[in-house]
Amino acid sequence: MLKTFEMGFKQNIKWYMIVDDDGYIVVNNTLALVNQYFHDQMWLLASVLCPHPYNHGSSPYFLRICGGGGYLISSKMAKYILPSLPKCFNYTSSKWDNGDMKYASVMLSVCLTELLNVTLTHRHEFKTVSPLKQITTNNNNTIKFSFNEKNLNNPVTFHYVKPWQKQLIVWKLYHGIETNLTVKNSSNWLT
């Protein structure tokens, strides 16, 4: 992250997007989201209401970046947090075992909220689940898939999107190119 920020500063990057390698980005929705904010103000946009991976404390939830769904950092926020990133590891490793810090989003969240008093802005458009969770099949093995405002709210990202074939199908379904797909009985497409 340090090198990404430093390179971005040289190129006048306005927003940084961090997404897992199994994430799917809906570019048009991402652009619409960042156009609601100013990059020269301090913003960290993410889904921030997610279960605590270690169940520390009395609540199973705490305010943190749900890393799998990705997050956006404005250039102003990046410049603010960059000098403190090396301190973050020391601060967070004193709270938990180093093995726990395999979740970089947890480490970053703790550092930003507790050490730097950064406000995390919750945006429901960052989806921490696969879009495949929204698929239902009927007795004819026809897949029904719908993106609508009620259940997905203009998604910016999805997590756990597997092979490229599934990404292509999801993309086609989302953009209305496909509305129904027939899957053979022996298919393991949903696994």
TrEMBL record:
This is Fringe-like glycosyltransferase domain-containing protein. Belongs to the glycosyltransferase 31 family. The lineage of its organism: Eukaryota, Metazoa, Spiralia, Gnathifera, Rotifera. InterPro entries: Fringe-like_glycosylTrfase. Keywords: Glycosyltransferase, Membrane, Signal-anchor, Transferase, Transmembrane, Transmembrane helix. It is a single-pass membrane protein; Single-pass type II membrane protein. One of its GO terms (cellular component) is membrane. GO terms for molecular function: glycosyltransferase activity. Residues 3-156 form the Fringe-like glycosyltransferase domain. It is found in: Endomembrane system; Membrane.
